Amino acid sequence: MENRPIAHRPPDGGSILTAAGFVLLVNLIGAAPSVVSSPDTPWFRALEKPWFYPPTIAFPVVWTLLFTLLGVAVWLVWRSDADGRRLALGLFVGQLAFNVAWTPAFFALEAPLLALGVIVALWGLVVGTIVAFRRVDTRAAALLVPYLAWVTFAAVLNFELWRLNA
């Protein structure tokens, strides 16, 4: 494979609106599970929490920021004509589906161990998505790194919630 720099098109007004649409769509998809399940239940409030459990306000703030980064990242890949674009987009959709599945697995089903399985699969899919995005647009891959860090933290948190309450 030839090593050549990837030419990046500067965004125009229409593509900025498209990027905003991607950001909005990813945020809406990411927020969808909160319609059917929530941590505001007697079951969750009764769980023993680990010492590093963040303040409740951290979750919507962090997820909004991360979903915004994901929206920009997928927009960068979507607008590219690089080889590997379809695979990268497919992996993105797959990891997003697992992300959405985690909330009902944990909160609605009250199944921390099942949710742990979901988040471990999610972690692997995020890593795969970063690798695939890197082949298409290194900026898009870099935008997913904070997401991987948070999913890693969330997996540890999920494990500890399961361990402390098993």
From TrEMBL:
Query: What PANTHER family does UniProt report for this protein, alphabetically?
Result: PERIPHERAL-TYPE BENZODIAZEPINE RECEPTOR, TRANSLOCATOR PROTEIN
What processes in GO biological process is this protein linked to?
tetrapyrrole metabolic process
This protein's record includes keyword Kinase: no
Q: Provide the family line.
A: Belongs to the TspO/BZRP family.
Where this protein primarily resides, as one coarse class? membrane
GO cellular component term of the entry, any = membrane
Which controlled-vocabulary keywords does the entry list?
Membrane, Transmembrane, Transmembrane helix
How does this protein lie in the membrane?
A: Multi-pass membrane protein
Keyword Transmembrane tagged: yes
Q: Which domain of life is it from?
A: Archaea
Transmembrane spans = 16-37, 57-78, 87-107, 113-133, 140-159
Record the organism.
Answer: Natrinema versiforme JCM 10478
* Location(s), subcellular: Membrane
Q: Which CDD domains match?
A: TSPO_MBR
What this protein is called in its record is TspO/MBR family protein
